[in-house]
């Protein structure tokens, strides 16, 4: 069943009005070539918008444990590296491992929680709009930062990062609430990136270039 995410229904409605206006213009125009171009544009806008805001049903794979970290986004792994711990109030230690996933405009953009636990950290930063595949976007762009602590005391922080095209981050959460792995909580509208920060002893299960699926692909495992 094709489903549109609630986070995008306002945009779909606006695009529908735009396409109806284009269709009306096409109906008025008597030049066949112009009529075809307008109708083609209208169809493209509507189909692309519906496709972009699709919200497929996802089920956690078998074998998921409390230590399993599931991808919060669809896309391609573009970075795995050690970084300095800039969140001493949340993480212990001097370094963290960062795994970054780039989302193209053709990927599903609805995000889900990578682990089950309690929401312990949230921060929204109004930043710039560097292209999302640039690693500078992690610290320069508009982003939300979300931290979860599992029942075992393991912690992960992940970021929704806006890109050059993406201009709106949607997030629906409440601090200190209990969340479940695979549960949807928001999206980034049009081309974007998600960074995951985990302790250094976390076992990474992906490599650069791997394609991952939100709510299904295993990114890492706590030790």
Secondary-structure blueprint:
Elements: H1 9-28, H2 32-52, E1 68-70, E2 75-84, E3 95-103, E4 110-112, E5 117-125, H3 137-140, E6 143-149, E7 155-162, E8 168-171, E9 178-179, E10 184-189, E11 192-199, E12 203-204, E13 211-212, E14 218-221
Antiparallel strand pairs: 1-14, 2-3, 2-13, 3-11, 4-10, 5-6, 5-9, 6-7, 7-11, 8-10, 12-14
Helix pairs in contact: 1-2
Summarize the structure.
With 223 residues, the chain is α+β, with helices and mostly antiparallel strands. Helices cover 20% and strands 35% of the residues. Strand 6 and strand 7 (155-162) form a beta hairpin.
**Which CATH top level class of the largest domain fits?**
Mainly Beta
Helix count equals 3
**What structural class do you assign from the helix and strand content?**
alpha+beta
Total strand segments: 14
Coarse morphology: elongated
Hey, roughly how much beta strand do the residues contain?
Answer: 25-35%
Distance between the termini: 38 Å
Uncertain segments = none
Biggest sheet character:
8 strands, antiparallel
Would you kindly provide a written description of the structure presented here, covering whatever features stand out?
There is one protein chain. By secondary structure, this protein is of the alpha+beta class. 20% of the residues lie in helices and 35% in strands. It has helices spanning 9-28, 32-52, 137-140; strands at residues 68-70, 75-84, 95-103, 110-112, 117-125, 143-149, 155-162, 168-171, 178-179, 184-189, 192-199, 203-204, 211-212, 218-221. An eight-stranded antiparallel beta sheet has the order 9-5-6-7-11-3-2-13, with no helix packed on it. A hairpin with a 5-residue loop joins strand 6 and strand 7. It is elongated. It starts with 8 loop residues before the first helix and ends with a strand. The model has no long low-confidence stretch (mean pLDDT 90).
């Amino acid at each position: 069943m094709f489903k549109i995410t609630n986070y995008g229904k306002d945009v779909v409605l606006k695009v529908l009005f735009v396409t109806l206006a284009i269709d009306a213009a096409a109906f008025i125009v008597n030049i066949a070539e112009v009529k075809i171009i307008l109708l083609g544009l209208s169809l493209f806008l509507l189909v692309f918008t519906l496709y972009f805001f699709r919200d497929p049903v996802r089920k956690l794979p078998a074998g998921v444990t409390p230590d399993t970290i599931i991808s919060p986004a669809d896309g391609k792994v573009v970075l795995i590296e050690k970084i300095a711990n800039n969140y001493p109030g949340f993480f212990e230690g001097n370094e963290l491992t960062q795994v970054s996933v780039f989302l193209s405009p053709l990927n599903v953009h609805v995000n889900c929680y990578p682990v089950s636990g309690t929401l312990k950290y949230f921060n929204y930063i109004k930043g710039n709009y560097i292209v999302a595949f640039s690693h500078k976007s992690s610290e320069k762009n508009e982003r939300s930062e979300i931290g979860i602590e599992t029942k075992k005391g393991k912690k992960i922080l992940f970021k929704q990062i806006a890109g050059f095209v993406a201009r709106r981050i949607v997030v629906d959460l409440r601090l200190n609430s209990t969340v479940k792995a695979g549960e949807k909580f928001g999206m980034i509208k049009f081309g974007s990136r998600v960074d995951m920060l985990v302790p250094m002893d976390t076992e990474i299960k992906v490599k650069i270039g791997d394609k991952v699926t939100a709510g299904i692909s295993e990114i890492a495992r706590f030790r």
